[in-house]
C-alpha cells in the first residue's frame, strides 16, 4: 500500500476521511510542530474519535459523584472498583457494541462481551458475571428478528464458552431502535484488594510486552466507525467487524490472572478500540511516562502489514503488559503454558513520547498525553429542546376511552415483547457456571451471586427506559438510576456503585445534545441523592439511522451488597393467603407507559416524575422489611404498572391474586401507570403490624391490596366493579409464549 | 432435480478461530507439514428447476440471502443434474 | 479418596467440580492440567464441562488428543471410575471410550435450565446405590447434547444396560431415546450431559447432584 | 505447497438439525423448489509434501483421525498443487 505523504495529507485533506476536522488537524500539527505522517494521523484519528475520547460527554463527567467510602477506583481506569469488605472488591463496567452489532449481530455482540471482560480481568479481577442491555426495533420486522437472534446467540456463544455466567439483562423493543440496535454489555469481577492492578506503564526501562492473540488487519478504524452515523455505506465498511475467539479469551483470562498473581506485573491494559495505539498511550499517559515500540516484533497473523495497520489493528484477545525488568521469562513461561505468545515489543521511557519503530525506522513519534483522553479536544455544542416534545407533552390520557373490563389489556401487555418473559433469551445463556448464581434470571428484579467463603451476596442489575428519557431526558434519567437501585433493593441488597452507558444520537444536532445534557444531569443528580457513586461509564453517540436518532438511552449498571445472602429476596409470591401490599405511594401516571403505547402505538405524555427523597425512603423501608424477615416477596413496579407487576409475581409462583384497588380514579391509570417509588410486597398476615411499623418509621405509605390465591387473578375497583378476571394460567401463557411465537 | 453444492468460506483477513485450533490440533498430532487451515461450511441443496441455469440462479440468490453472511464470508457454488429425491 | 479433575484448555467447569468435591464432600480433589501423563495416584477421574479448544470443529474432537487422555484411557481399562460431564462426555465419545457421537441440539440453540432426569441403572460407580427410576433435578447447559447412535448401537446399549440417565419430561436437545447419559460395557466409564456439580448445594437450588458424588464415595468405600 | 479441500458431510440416516433449519429458512424466504438441505463442513488445509500422492495420503490420515468423526460423518477430499504460503 502506498501511503500518502504528510504534504499530500494536508493538500488532499485526507484527515477528513479519517473523521478529523480541519481544526483538529491544525491542532495536531501544532502539537507536533510539524505535519503528521499517515501513521501518526491514523493514531490521532482513532484516539480522538468520539468513541475513545468522549469529546462531547467528557465536559459533563465532573457532574458525577465519583467518591465514596467504598470506592477504591472511580472513573479513569479500565473499570471501577468498589469495596465489599473482608478484603474483597467488586470490579464492574458497561461497554456498548452498537455499531458492530448492527452490521454483524453475532460477532458484534460476541466481541462486545469479550471486550468488556478484558476490562475486568485487566484489573486483576476474575470475571464472575455479565449482563446485557439490548434495544431493537419491533419484532414484526424480519431484519429485527435477525438482529435480535444474532445478538443473543453471539452473547451466548462468547459468554458460555469463556465460562462467565450471563446472569441478567434487559431487552426493549421499540421502533425507535429499528435501524440502530443497542447492545450494551456489563461485566462484573471479583478481586482481592491486594490484587487490584492498574494500567500504568511506569519504571523507565521496563519491558513492554504484547500478549495473547496474533495481530491481523481486523477492525482497523473500528473506533471511528463507532463514532459515525450508520448509513447504507456502513455495510461497505465491513472489515471493521471483528470475529471473536472465546477460546483464546478463556486462555487469556487464566494466563493474565496467573500472571498478576505471580506479582511481576507493573501495569497491564487490554487492547480494545484502537488496539496498540490506545493501550500504549493510555498506559504511558496515566504513568506520566513514555513508551518506545518496535512494531516489527509484534506477532502477526498476516504478512505485509504496515506500521499504520499494526498500530490501529483491533484484533481481539490481546493485552499490553509492562512487567518488572527481570520478569520477561516469567511472563513468557506463564503464557507458553496456555499456548499464547508473549513478546517484548518495546520499553518504558521517561520522555512522555510514544515512539514507534518498524525495525530500524522511526515511523511515529507523538506525545502520549496529547493522544490520551485528557489530551483530546472537547466540544460544547448548542442545545435545544426537540420540537417533538410539544406534541408528546400535549397528550392527555383522558383521550383514552375508559372501559369496564381490562382483562384483555392486561393479557396484551404481558404479550408485548418488551414486558414478556425473556426466558427465550436467558435459557441460551449459561447463567450457572462458576456456581455463584443464587438468584437466577427471571426470579427477581436483579441477579444475586454469592461470594464463596463469605456469607455475602452481590446483586447486579442493568436498566434504562429509553422511552421515558425520550419524553423527558432529565426525569427519565433520574428514573433510570432510581429503578436500578429499586431493583437491587428488592433482592435485599444495598446499592454501592453504578456504571453508566450513554447511548445517544448525533451530538452535533442541538436536540440530541440537549437530550444528552439533560440526561447526564439526571443521572448525576440521582446518583448523588441516592448516595450511589459513579465508578465508571461509557458513551456511544451517533446512534442514528437514516438521519433519525434512537431514543436517548442512558443505561445504568448497578451493584449492590447483601451482607447476609440468606436474607435475599425474590419477586414470586410464596404462599396462598399471604397479604399483597403496596410499599410506596399511590401512582397514576400513564405518560410514556406501555399501556399508552398499546392504545396509541406511540410514546406520549410526561414520563413518571421522580421524587428522590421518596425513592430513598422507600428503598430504606424495603431493605428493613427484608432484613427483618417480614416479607416473602418484593417486586418493583415498572413497565406495565401495578397490574403487570402483580401478574408477574403470580406467574413466577403459579399462584393467583385477588386484588381490590383501594383508590378512586381511572382504572387504567391505577392498573397500568408506571409511577416510580413503588414496590409490591407479599407477607404472611401475621407480619402486617411489624411491616406497618417499619414503613411508618421510614414515612412510607403501606397499602393493603389483597391476598394471594391458588390461581384466580382478579382486580376489583374501589366500588366493587370487577376490572380484570382471569387465571394465572392464561397470564402465564401470554407472557411465556410472546417471544417464542414471534421468533418461530 | 438439481443438486447444488455451496462452499462458504471466511473472507481473507477475517480471523478463523476454528481453523487456528484445528491447525494446532493437527500439529500436536504430528502433522508438522501443515501450514494453515481454514474451516468453512459445505452446504448441499436439492431443488427442482426447469434448467441448470435457473437452478444456479436460484441457489446464487439463496447463498446471498441466507447461506452465507456477506459481512465476513464469501461462497462458491456448483450445480449438477441428479436423479432421485434425496440427498445422500 | 483422591479425585482428578482434568483441565483442558477451555474447560470451564473444572473449578466448579473441584469446589464441590473438596468443599462439599471434603475429598482430596486435584486439578490436573491436560499435559500431565501420570494419573496413577487417583482413585477416580472427572472430565469436567466447558468448551475444550473452544468446541471448534466438533466438541471434544481436539481435546481427546491431549497427552492426559492416554492415561485416562489406561485408567478406564483398569476399571477406575471415570466421569465425563457435558464437554467431558463429548470428549469420552470422541476418544471412543464411550459409543456414539454428539450432534448440535435440535433447536440449534444452547440450552441452560434445570432438567429432570431418570436414573436407569445402578451398576455404575456414579449411580451406585441409587434406585433405578429415581428422578433427579440437575441443570443442563449445552449446545451440542443431541446424542446419536445408530439403531444397532442403540440396541446394544439397551441390551447391555448402558443407558444410565434419560431425560424425563421434555427432551432438551433431541437425543436418541431421550438419552442423557451412558456408560461403557464394564460400567466404570460414565458420560452425562447434565451437571451434577451445579446441584450440590442448597443455596444453588437443588442438592440432587450430591447423589452422584455420594454414589462414587459409597462405591469406593465398598471396594476398599 | 499443496492445498487440500475436505468436505465433511453427515452420513445418511443421521439427523441434520442445521440442514433442516436452513431448509425451512429457505422455504420461508419463498424458495419453494427446495427439496432438502444438508449442512456440513468445508476444510482447507495448506501443507508441504514431496508429491501430490504424499499430500493426499497425509490429508486422508488427518481426515480419519481428526477432521471427520466416522460415527456420524463421511468425507471427500481433493488435493492440488498451489503457489504461495497462505490460504486466501
Ligand atoms: N459516561 C461515563 N461516565 C463516567 N465515566 C465514564 C463515562 N464514559 C467513560 N467513562 C470513563 O472513561 C474511562 C475510559 O473509558 P473507555 O474508553 O470506555 O475505557 P476502555 O477503553 O477501557 O473500555 C473509563 O474509566 C470510564 O469509566
Ligand atoms: Mg479498557
Task: Characterize the structure shown.
The complex is a heterotetramer, with one copy of chain A (about 750 residues), two copies of chain B (about 90 residues) and one copy of chain C (about 220 residues). Chain A has about 750 residues and is an alpha+beta fold. A seven-stranded mixed sheet of chain A has the order 8-10-7-11-9-12-13. A seven-stranded mixed sheet of chain A has the order 23-25-22-26-24-27-28. A six-stranded mixed sheet of chain A has the order 1-2-3-6-4-5. The two termini of chain A are about 50 Å apart. Mean pLDDT of chain A is about 95; it is low at about 235-240. With about 90 residues, chain B is α+β, with helices and mostly antiparallel strands. Helices cover about 30% and strands about 35% of the residues of chain B. Chain B has one domain (about 1-80): Phosphoribosylformylglycinamidine synthase subunit PurS (Mth169, Chain: A). Chain B is elongated. Chain B has helices at about 15-30, 50-65; strands at about 1-10, 35-45, 75-80. Chain B has a three-stranded antiparallel sheet with strand order 2-1-3. The relative contact order of chain B is 0.34. With about 220 residues, chain C is an alpha/beta fold. Chain C has a single domain, classed as Rossmann fold (3-Layer(aba) Sandwich). Helix content of chain C is about 25%, strand content about 25%. Chain C has five helices and eleven strands, in the order βαββαβαββββαβββα. Chain C has helices at about 15-25, 70-80, 85-95, 150-160, 210-224, and strands at about 1-5, 30-35, 45, 80-85, 100-105, 110-120, 135-140, 145-150, 165, 180-185, 190. A nine-stranded mixed sheet of chain C has the order 2-1-3-4-11-10-9-6-7, with helices on both faces. A two-stranded antiparallel sheet of chain C has the order 5-8. In chain C, strand 3 (about 45), helix 2 (about 70-80) and strand 4 (about 80-85) form a beta-alpha-beta unit. The longest helix of chain C has 14 residues, at about 210-225. Chain C is globular and about 40 Å long. Classes of the chains: A alpha+beta (about 750), B alpha+beta (about 90), C alpha/beta (about 220). Chains in contact: A-B, A-C, B-C, B-D, C-D. Chains B and D meet through strand 1, helix 1, strand 2 and helix 2 of B and strand 1, helix 1, strand 2 and helix 2 of D. Strand 2 of chain B pairs antiparallel with strand 2 (about 35-45) of chain D, so a sheet runs across the interface. The complex binds adenosine-5'-diphosphate (ADP) and magnesium ion. Adenosine-5'-diphosphate binds near residues 95 and 534 of chain A.
